[in-house]
Amino acid sequence: DADVTQTPRNRITKTGKRIMLECSQTKGHDRMYWYRQDPGLGLRLIYYSFDVKDINKGEISDGYSVSRQAQAKFSLSLESAIPNQTALYFCATSDLYSPVNTEAFFGQGTRLTVV
Amino acid sequence: GEDVEQSLFLSVREGDSSVINCTYTDSSSTYLYWYKQEPGAGLQLLTYIFSNMDMKQDQRLTVLLNKKDKHLSLRIADTQTGDSAIYFCAESIRGNNRLAFGKGNQVVVIP
Question: What is the CA radius of gyration of chain B?
């Protein structure tokens, strides 16, 4: 089983719909992240959470919200999806006590298309 | 601010060496990383270098760090078809305790 699991892996949704992307991890890490990847733009951080009670905006949080339901679960919601949110979304985790400091472990990604 | 720059595309013949470059801005970064993304997959940590090192060698991979110029490079020796991927450099951002990624460099290995 993967250490970081994202569901769904692929999703097509209509403009204006609400959609939730889920992430669960078995690494026992406190820190979890949501990134989106666009061609030529690399990875951009949407939200991150350092523990269940700590949620922080990243560089592109507008139009997104998150929920940290438990240490192992971090979900990303698009309240009203729009076409420019079409992207590949990645969840990641990291360990505060990692010997290489914030090394991140990534899920397989969710390809979201908003039509 | 944090800004990590990479060139976008590199093609290389199988067996040759390939070099990917990256520049970063946060001089207080503790670690710098190279991640590999194979088609249809998430990012996987390939190697890393501690900021007080100049060079790190790990089998076919050599990482060079020039702190003065804030320049990081990854050399892949004897490039193989399995090395075709997108490579991201990343720096750890102190204070924010997170990573800033470059835009990625796609490497295509030609048989």
Answer: 13
Higher-pLDDT residue of A23 and B50 is A23
Contacts of A39 by beta carbon, 8 Å cutoff, 6+ apart: none
Query: From chain A, which residues contact B within 8 Å (Cβ)?
Result: 4, 31, 33, 35, 40-43, 45, 48, 50, 90, 92, 94, 96, 100-109
Residue of B nearest to A57 (CA): B96
Best B43, B44, B45, B86 member to test A by mutation, with max A CBs in 10 Å, is B43
Please name the residues in contact with A62: beta carbons below 8 A apart, sequence gap of 6 or more. none
- Using CA atoms, how far residue B27 sits from B74, B86, B87, in Å, is 19, 25, 22
* B45-88 residue pLDDT tens: 999 998 888 999 999 999 999 988 889 999 999 999 999 999 99
pLDDT of residue B1: 44
Token pair recorded at residue B24: 């970063």
Nearest C-alpha neighbor of B90 from the set B75, B78, B108, B105? B105
Write phi, then psi, for A79 (nearest 5 degrees): -65, -40
A11's tokens: 């999703």
Assess whether the previous peptide bond of B39 is cis (omega < 30° from 0): no
Closest-CA residue in chain B for A49? Answer: B98
Mean pLDDT of chain A: 91
pLDDT one-digit tens code per residue, A48-75 = 998 899 999 998 999 999 999 999 999 9
